[in-house]
Every structure is written in structure tokens, then in C-alpha cells.
Design a protein that fits this description.
Blueprint lengths: L2 E6 L4 H10 L5 E8 L7 H4 L11 E3 L2 H4 L4 E4 L6 H6 L6 E4 L9 H7 L16 E2 L2 E2 H5 L4 E3 L3 H15 L8 E7 L14 H4 L4 E2 L9 H10 L7 E7 L6 E8 L6 H12 L5 E3 L17 E8 L4 E8 L3 H16 L15
Parallel strand pairs: 1-2, 1-4, 2-3, 4-5, 5-8, 9-11, 13-14
Antiparallel strand pairs: 6-7, 9-12, 10-11, 12-15, 14-15
Helix pairs in contact: 1-11, 7-9
The structure holds NADPH dihydro-nicotinamide-adenine-dinucleotide phosphate (NDP) and N-acetyl-L-glutamyl 5-phosphate.
N-acetyl-L-glutamyl 5-phosphate (X2W) binds next to helix 7 and strand 11.
Length: 347
């Protein structure tokens, strides 16, 4: 018998990508889709690309609508998940794509999000090194999962191998990311109009203000860094989806290029969705769009004494919906790869 699924916030971008992946998942079956302003609309009115789910219509986002399913994916705005999740039974697998349960520190939550910390849940990044193991092990059998932020995923995966190997200085990390507007969601915002975006590039949340900073610090500490300091700057560029993160950090004295390549290649050798390119190559966003892959190029800037990692992901793939489904598969004891693909849709 298939596993019954509800997706809350299904009319948004993250919800839509969840539905696209779930439609091809052999074990999970979408039974209920909820929305806010779009409640009452047929699914195809919002997602005309999802024809195989054309029999569904959006209903109101309430705990009563979500209850009774085996798995509930929440793709709601920040701050909307915690209250509704608290009303769902403990035996339901709840996978939250929002930030409400990502941070382990209430002080960090208050500093970057304000009131209403939801408490932390098991973190949905299977490839993250945690102590001597991987986070994958901590996801088996859980019934609550916090899906990472999309920018966080790109930066964490880019640097974790060097941190874990003890060869980078995590107190001087610099990350600059080119990001597409779908990361900001589907709701209309003036700075996301085509007339503002096209032919343009603009930094935002500069000067250490982006809410993903404490989450990246938390991850790099989990990977083994005693202390983390990161300068993080996203730049909005005109590509519908995708993130290209350039992450640099000083290398510990005496670290060779071979040490670096060996750390990154060995960390991800067994990972289906994290790929390290041959030395000197860099990834393209268009090669990961539509996939659950993170592809990175790792080089050493010997003059600056820094490792330079360029990592591409699809913010809606490995950055949200792909990670949500990969983690849910693990929690449910299914094959981790069901419903996911390594291949993009370029050009
Ligand atoms: N976009 C991305 O790349 C990523 C998104 N996420 C997270 O996923 C979540 C959803 O993001 P995204 O899909 O981009 O956002 P969207 O704005 O595209 O979608 C938001 C969804 O929530 C619904 N909604 C809006 N307001 C409320 C409300 N007050 N109560 C209940 N439901 C509401 C919307 O319904 P309606 O449209 O019908 O009004 C819509 O279904 C966020 O927490 C985001 O941080 C995480 C990683 C990456
Ligand atoms: C372009 C743009 O605004 N991108 C968003 C991506 C946020 C995201 O997807 O992650 P969360 O789940 O933490 O919101 C941003 O940088 O805030």
C-alpha cells in the first residue's frame, strides 16, 4: 500500500517542486494539497506544469486537513510551521521546509527571526558530517525533519570536507552567492519583477544580516569547527532557479593541493548527489537545475593561501524539495534515492 502524503503550502514554489517530485515517487502518493489565498482553486490553475496531479484542488491549511496522512510536508512561510506541526500526531512524519525548526540555539533564532522559536528538529542534510558519522544516520526512523535553507546547503556542502579534515580555518570563511529569484518564493514582490531583475544583479542582506548565517555556523561546528566566522553575501541574478556559491577560507599551514583534493573527493566519494569535479573545473548552474545534485569545483589559490570552492545547486531541488524527499525516504526506511534524480535539464 502506498504512503499517503499531504503538502501544505502546495501553491508556492517549494510546494510545487515537492509535488513535481512526489508525482514520480513510486511509494508516496499525494492525497491533499493545501494553500492560503489559493484555497479552493484547482491545482492546475497554479501549477499548469503538473498535469498528472490535475485531479487535485487546494484546500485550506489547517491541522484537520493535514491529519490522517502518513507524511506531511510543510512549505509554509517562516513562522507558520511550528503551530500547525504541534497539532499533528507524533507518529506522522512531518517534514518542514521552512526555518522554524532548523536552529538549535533559541538566541540565534531570536537574533535573526524574532519571537516564536519552534525548537530544533533532526536536520535534513544526510551528507553533513556530524562527529565521526553522517547526519544520514540521525534521520533513520525520525518523525520530524527540518529541511535546511537553500543557501545554507550550498555553503555547507562546499566547505564541510575541509572543516571535517581540519585543513581549513573556519574563522575566516567568505561566501558570495549568485541566487535566482525563486528562492524568495512566489508571492509578488516589486524587486522580483522582470523589469527589475533582467539585465541586473544586486546584493542583498549585506553586512552579516542574512538569517542563514547562524545556520551555516551551526553546520560547520557540527562538522568539527571549534569556532566559525563567516562573511556571507547573496547576489540576486536573473536566473529563475539556482545558486552558484563561491566559498573561500584560509588553509591551515602546510596543507598541500593533494591534501585538499583528497579531503573533498573522499568526503563525497559515496554520495550520489554531491559531485566533486576534476581539479580546475567549475560547475554551471544550468547543469543542476531540476536535479537533486550539488556539483562543486575545488581549487587552491596558493598566492592567497585559501581554498576556493564553487558549488552549484538548484535552490528548489537539493536546496529544498529534493532534500525534503531524500530525508523523508531515509526516515521512512525507503531507498534514499526514490523520486530523485542526479541529472539536470540543461540547456
Ligand atoms: N523557494 C526556495 O528556494 C526555498 C524555500 N524554502 C522554504 O519553503 C517555504 C515556502 O517557500 P516558497 O515556496 O518559496 O514560498 P511561496 O511564497 O512560493 O509559497 C508560500 C506558500 O505558503 C502559503 N501561505 C502564504 N501565507 C500563508 C499563511 N499566512 N498561512 C498559511 N499558508 C500561507 C502560500 O499560499 P497561497 O499562495 O495560496 O497564498 C503558498 O502555498 C518557506 O519557509 C521557505 O523559506 C526553503 C528552501 C528554499
Ligand atoms: C532570492 C532570495 O530571496 N532567496 C532567499 C532564499 C531563502 C531560502 O530559500 O531559504 P529559507 O527557507 O531559509 O527561506 C534568501 O536569500 O533569503
Amino acid at each position: 500500500m502506498s504512503v499517503s502524503v499531504a503538502v501544505a503550502g502546495a501553491s508556492g514554489y517549494a510546494g510545487g517542486e515537492l509535488l513535481r517530485l512526489l508525482a514520480q515517487h513510486p511509494e508516496l502518493e499525494v492525497a491533499t494539497v493545501t494553500a492560503h489565498s489559493n484555497a479552493g482553486q484547482p491545482l492546475l490553475a497554479v501549477h499548469p506544469h503538473l498535469r498528472s496531479l490535475g485531479h487535485l484542488s487546494f484546500v485550506e491549511t489547517t491541522a484537520a486537513q493535514l491529519q490522517g496522512h502518513d507524511v506531511v510536508f510543510l512549505a509554509l512561510p517562516h513562522g507558520q510551521s511550528a503551530a500547525i506541526a504541534a497539532e499533528l500526531s507524533d507518529d506522522v512524519l512531518v517534514v518542514d521546509c521552512g526555518a522554524d525548526h532548523r536552529l538549535t540555539s533559541e538566541a540565534d533564532w531570536q537574533a535573526f527571526y524574532g519571537d516564536g522559536w519552534g525548537g530544533s528538529w533532526p536536520y535534513g542534510m544526510p551528507e553533513l558530517p556530524v562527529g565521526d558519522a553522517l547526519q544520514r544516520r540521525n534521520l533513520r526512523g525520525v518523525r520530524r525533519i527540518a529541511v535546511p535553507g537553500c543557501n545554507v546547503t550550498a555553503v555547507t556542502l562546499a566547505l564541510a570536507p575541509g572543516v571535517q579534515a581540519g585543513i581549513v580555518d573556519a574563522t575566516d570563511v567568505v561566501a558570495v552567492l549568485a541566487v535566482g529569484p525563486s528562492g524568495a518564493g512566489r508571492a509578488l514582490k516589486p524587486h522580483l519583477l522582470a523589469s527589475e531583475l533582467l539585465g541586473n544583479a544586486q546584493a542583498y542582506a549585506v553586512g552579516g544580516t542574512h538569517r542563514h548565517i547562524p545556520e551555516i555556523e551551526q553546520n560547520l561546528r557540527a562538522a568539527g569547527a571549534a569556532e566559525v566566522r563567516i562573511s556571507f553575501t547573496p547576489v540576486l541574478v536573473p536566473m529563475a532557479r539556482g545558486i552558484l556559491a563561491t566559498v573561500t577560507a584560509p588553509l591551515v599551514e602546510g596543507t598541500s593541493v593533494d591534501d585538499v583534493l583528497s579531503a573533498w573527493h573522499s568526503a563525497y566519494a559515496d554520495e550520489r548527489y554531491v559531485h566533486v569535479l576534476p581539479h580546475g573545473e567549475t560547475p554551471r548552474v544550468s547543469d543542476v537545475v531540476g536535479s537533486n545534485s550539488a556539483v562543486m569545483g575545488v581549487t587552491v589559490d596558493e598566492r592567497a593561501g585559501r581554498v576556493v570552492v564553487v558549488c552549484a545547486i538548484d535552490n528548489l531541488g537539493k536546496g529544498t524539495a529534493g532534500a525534503a524527499i531524500q530525508s523523508a525516504n531515509i526516515a521512512l526506511g525507503l531507498d534514499e534515492h526514490l523520486g530523485l534524480t542526479t541529472d539536470g535539464v540543461a540547456p
